Amino acid sequence: MKNRFFLLPALLTAFMGCSGKNTPEPASLPAATALKASAISQTSALLEWQDNCTDEDGYYVFLSGIDVRPRATLPANSSSYTFQDLEAGKTYRLGVQAFKKGNILSAMAVSEAVTLPVPEPEPEPEPEPEDDPNPIQPVTFSWNEVTGTELPAAVKLFKTEGTLNGRPLRAWYAVADCSGDVRFRVLFPGNGNKKTIDAQASAQEKCLVLINGGIFGASGKPNGFALYDGQQTPWFRVEDDNWDVDRQYWGPKVEGKADGKLHTVSRGLFGVDAGGKPGVYWSYTPSHGTVYVYDQPIPSVEGEAVCPGGTDSYPCERASWEPYNAITCGPVLLQRGKCPINDKKTDKGYWETNYEMWSGDIFGVAERHDRTAVGYLEDGRVVLCVVDGRIDASQGATTLEMAAIMKGLGCVGALNLDGGGSTGMWVKGAGHVNDTSAEASRPVITTLGFFSK
User: Fold this and answer.
1) How far apart are CA 428 and CA 201, in angstroms?
2) Which helix (H) or strand (E) holds 98?
3) In a designed cystine with 423, which of 370, 400, 412, 413 is the match (CB 3.0 to 4.6 A)?
């Protein structure tokens, strides 16, 4: 009996041992290879692989280190999958594993890390346009093109005869692209060597249109300076009073009074750079041959403290634009489409925007004279304009009216030039087109205009 009880446990042990040895282990599937992960959007990534199986039932895909369960189950022979709804800017490793019924699996294959792009920052809203401190409405006329000249097609000439604020007005303007076959130039006959516009034009074989330029004194010295082909006119210094006419001016009389101060000023400047790109700025000359240009004037106001001179950062950062043919005069009529001057006075009775310290016959907002101005359009074309004045057929314009005329022509930048008897326009094939009566067409110190190359 003892032997029977001993035998049963032994048989059970032997049966169990044989049963374990005879159960086959599941065969594994070959793993996917050549994995490639790529971001296809800010929230999706594509995983591609080489299918190395021949009898798999499908594939599991997952985010390595994130998914506990498969992200998706794919059919047999799959070789790619797009993961959706991911997080922009985050880095992922994408995995794939083949499977077959019977819990047969391949080794897990995991891609290199892939980072999804971050969204482009929302563009900052365009700043609200600054209020124009001196809003002016553009004045428009019925302009008629003048034909019968010898101007090339790149230069157009127009004339109008109408009314301005109820007064008769006659004006001309020429417009040209100065970056091609036509160039803008400034002429300077020499120290004190004044010549009429017609004489200066006739001496230049390539001259197409010429107008008068900057203001000058009785001695023939320019009130300011010019640049002609990169060369600055001589530096004129008034020795007896020890002040520089290029950067210092006495406060002008306003209704018979002046503040008696020698103010540091930046004068208006129009010109083109070496490539023909036009610009209107305020200029300051710390020394002869050095010209600083700014988008803002030195804020000199008569009756107030004298301002310091211009620097690299005062009155604002210097502009990178460099004049090559340019002239100083003023006041600036338009800068970036806005008029920087008005007819208001300070509590002390001086003009609040006469930053350039022009005399009353030039700046005075009620002064109607012959006017000359130069400007440029948004597309870079240069405009030369003259207005007849002080005759029955045309009674001239004030500085603010001239600004409105230039704005009406489409100018975004404009500079007032010498006027009165200096105002004149010469055109090839037509000669002197505006009024030449009285003192009109007098000799001038500088001129500017269009020339063929």
Assistant:
1) 9
2) strand 94-100
3) 370
**362: its two tokens:** 């030039």
3 vs 121, higher pLDDT = 121
**Range from 252-256, 281-285, 390-394, 397-401 carrying the lowest mean pLDDT:** 252-256
Sort strands 278-287 and 267-272 into parallel, antiparallel or unpaired: antiparallel
Can you state the percent helix, strand and coil of the chain, rounding each to 5? 10, 35, 55
d(CA 38, CA 72): 18
Q: What is the tens place of the pLDDT at every residue in 1-38? A: 444 433 333 333 333 344 444 445 556 899 999 999 99
pLDDT number for residue 96? 95
What token pair was written down for 428? Answer: 């090839």
- DSSP one-letter string for 396-441: -B-HHHHHHHHHHTTEEEEEE---GGG--EEETTTEE-S--STTTT
For the cut 50, the answer to whether the pLDDT of residue 262 exceeds it is yes
**Count of CB atoms situated within 10 Å of the CB of 88:** 14
Contact 450, 183 (CB under 8 A): yes
Integer-rounded Cα radius of gyration of the chain? 41
What is the strand order of the sheet 226-228 is part of?
231-232, 226-228, 325-329, 267-272, 278-287, 290-294
